[in-house]
Amino acid sequence: MTLKLKFKLKPNITSRKPLLRSLYRKKVLFLILLALLIINVIGVIIVASMHTQIKKKVVLYKIRHNILFDYIASLRPNILYNVSVIKPEETTYLKLVKLINVTETYRVYSDKNIRVEGTHTCSVLLEAPGEWKKELYKCPSTNFRSNYLDVKYTFNVSKILSYIDIIRKETGISTNEYVLTIKPKINVKYYVDNYENQETLTPYFSIIFDIQAGKLRFKESNSTYVSDKVETIVKTNYVKIFGSMIEVIKLKILLYFTLVLVTTSFILNWVLVIRKRERKDIISMINAKYKDLIIEAKDLRINVKNVVDVRNIEDLVKIASNLGKPILHIVLKEKKHVYHVVDEDILYRLIV
């Protein structure tokens, strides 16, 4: 058995410069990982609220249906107006009116080339609001193949009043107002580019016979109907970063992957720092508590037959006390701390 020992008694002090450099590098790495993690989390939060696709409504073509009603009243000979015809801006007195001529004008407008075809029908209703309703007649169906249509109606006021008088006598119900309503029904089919559409329009025009006031009033529905063709287009959403356009979906994948990578690195670095600190604390505790038993060895070459690894420093201290031997401490190149007790051909050791 050959035993060669070179050792000297010295305080348990490790060179501080390498240690400080190591701590500085670890601190810098830790701070870099922490900064990357914070930036990545902020980026993920911002990008998470972004849509990977955007929906945009696009107007393929615009369609406007205009339906206007105009009228003139033909008068009996009179002194008040001294004319035979009055227009809507004049007051229409019931006893002066002989005929009411109504013109219904239908027009279709589009921002694209349009081809139109359709049919026009109507019904004329006379009613005492809330009491009775009578269909006087139906208009014949009219076909048209253009983007305009004019329909004319003529009503004899005396004839309408006679209808009212007959129904009033039949029902025994008399009211102050009676309403004559024109109800057109326009079925229109139009072709714009490669699109085909069909609609039914139901405007109305009412002539109100105000018996008590002795006047006629007029009321019509909205004159414009909108039938725009709108489609929803789905597009990939992009975000501008440093002057370059990047797809949001790709940016999300990149940030999620980076978040996992940085988080894993941060956790591993944290775990390693904690373990190293624990190991350092154990070594410091051993060197401080058992400084009277420990001898710092500069070099150690031992040829022994048996090597026994002990579980903890307490067991090694017991062995050293029983044998009356010192505990030799060396630091290997791998920065492992080895504590030895040599007894002839047996080497007891603890590696920290």
Keywords:
single chain, 352 residues, alpha+beta, seven-stranded antiparallel beta sheet, six-stranded mixed beta sheet, 22 strands, 47% strand
Can you put this structure into words, describing what you see?
The chain folds into two domains: 3-47 and 248-351, no CATH class; 60-232. The strands form five sheets. Strands 5, 7, 8, 10, 11, 12 and 13 form a seven-stranded antiparallel β-sheet that branches. Strands 1-18-20-21-22-19 form a six-stranded mixed β-sheet, with helices on one face. 29% of the residues lie in helices and 47% in strands. By secondary structure, the protein is of the alpha+beta class. The protein contains four helices and 22 strands. The chain has helices spanning 16-48, 157-171, 248-289, 313-323, and strands spanning 3-7, 53-61, 63-75, 85-86, 92-93, 97-110, 114-128, 132-144, 148-156, 177-192, 195-201, 205-210, 215-220, 224-226, 229-236, 238-241, 244-247, 294-302, 306-309, 327-331, 337-343, 346-351.
